[in-house]
Amino acid sequence: MLDIAAGYLAAGRVEAAFVLASRALDAGLTYRSGRIVERARAVRRTLTTASPPKMVRDFDDRLHGVYL
Predict the structure, then answer these.
(1) N or C, fewer C-beta in 10 Å, the chain?
(2) How far is 43 from 20, CA to CA, in rounded Å?
(3) Which helix (H) or strand (E) holds 55?
């Protein structure tokens, strides 16, 4: 799912990318999978913008305190 999100992000479809990334992060947190969470962080790092959209800021907030 995160590979597809990365593809959407590369194509410039930020909202669609982070909808999928959020779903994947939910699964990673449910199953306590550090691998999924780290992959979600990697997808997030590929977006570099001075003013990220609200969906991306919400995603950042969810990732902020996660350590598995």
Answers:
(1) C
(2) 11
(3) helix 54-64
- What pLDDT digit, counting tens, does each position of 33-63 carry? 999 999 999 999 999 988 999 999 999 999 9
Locus of tokens 């999100």? 5
- CA distances to 4, 12, 45, 64, 65 from 8, in Å: 6, 6, 14, 23, 26
**What angle, 0 to 180 degrees and rounded to 10, lies between the N-to-C axes of helices 34-45 and 14-30?**
160
5 burial (CB, 10 Å; 0-12 / 13-18 / 19+) is: buried
What lies within 8 Å, CB to CB, of 22 at 6+ separation is 55, 58, 59, 62
pTM: 0.89
What pLDDT score was predicted for residue 66? 81
